[in-house]
Amino acid sequence: MFKIFSKSILLIVFSVVICCILYPIALWAVGQVLFPSQSNGSMLMGPDGKPVGSRLIAQPFTKDEYFQPRPSAASYDASASASSSLAGSNYALRDRVARTLGPIVAYRSGPKAGQPVAPDIEQWFQKDKFQGAPHIVAQWADMHNSLAQAWVTSDATHTAYVSAWAKTHPKDVAQFMKDNPAVSQPKEADLAVTFFKSFSAENAGKFPSVVTRKGKDGKPQTTIEPVTAGSDIQSIFFDMWRQDHADADIQDIPGDLVTTSASGLDPHISLQNAEFQLDRVAPKWAADLKRDQAEVRKEIEQILQKNASAAWNGLIGEKFVNVLEINLELRNKYGEPR
User: Fold this and answer.
1) Exposure class string for 212-222: b at 16+ Cβ within 10 A, else e
2) Quick one: which of 284, 211, 213, 250 has its CA closest to 121?
3) Which tens digits make up the pLDDT trace of 145-183?
4) Are 47 and 331 in contact (CB under 8 A)?
5) How many CB atoms lie within 10 A of CB 184?
6) Beta carbons of 292 and 286 less than 8 angstroms apart
7) Cα-only R_g, the chain
8) In 3D, which of 190, 202, 72 has the Cα closest to residue 134?
9) The whole model's pTM is what?
């Protein structure tokens, strides 16, 4: 009996030593010697020598001097990798794509070929008519209740603005409670559609947007104000403008500019996508550097071509670029953006 136990104990000890100590150490040693970059997460270093991210995981960039990765349903969180799982028939998907297109899409042909549609969206919006009926904002909220509610809850200033409106419009709130007896104490999100209908009636051709102004003390102060132009109008109402202008010939957009990847973390964009963004990136760098725009654009195009690659060393598929690698090269070449 003792021999059986002793052999079992020895087997456990050998298994622990081999599987939990020797094997991990061997793998670590091989990785550090032969594949040091891959085994340490394929990290990329910034100009100061500190890691700024992995070449395998996308991350967002906020400045116009940098290229943007694909949209992410996971908010670029590596611990929450996921796709949007939105069907083509889901309006939330159409709305997200439309909001991306509004500020950037341009006419493909006609007298305004090459010009952005954004100014025309604003002019159409200011007339406050959609498919011949008045009050665009009210129609938008009524057709897309969830989007109206999302606007209210997306920002604390939005919620506070609706709360303040409710206090000054007791009749509208009372009518909502009458029409919805199950909601005895409506929250700001519950009042979203009622709020937008009231706002639209009082502010024709305007939309509530965040505006930053200098206060009396010289410090910036953020408030919500009715506006007739801006990125909110260009993005939120692009889809409605498109329905009213179905015959407008607009540019085709690279698919990966507006669609998420299956993981939400794809670090690459197509070369076509990068070249489309070049119209934004090059002018910003030229303005920062006070250099000729055409010259800067040519330099960045060369960087893109140098870093572009396709599968199997270019034998198959279209070319892609790694967004973080490209942006780091721009940072190293031109310095820090303003």
Assistant:
1) eeeeeeeeeee
2) 250
3) 999 999 999 999 999 999 999 999 999 999 999 999 988
4) yes
5) 7
6) yes
7) 27
8) 202
9) 0.79
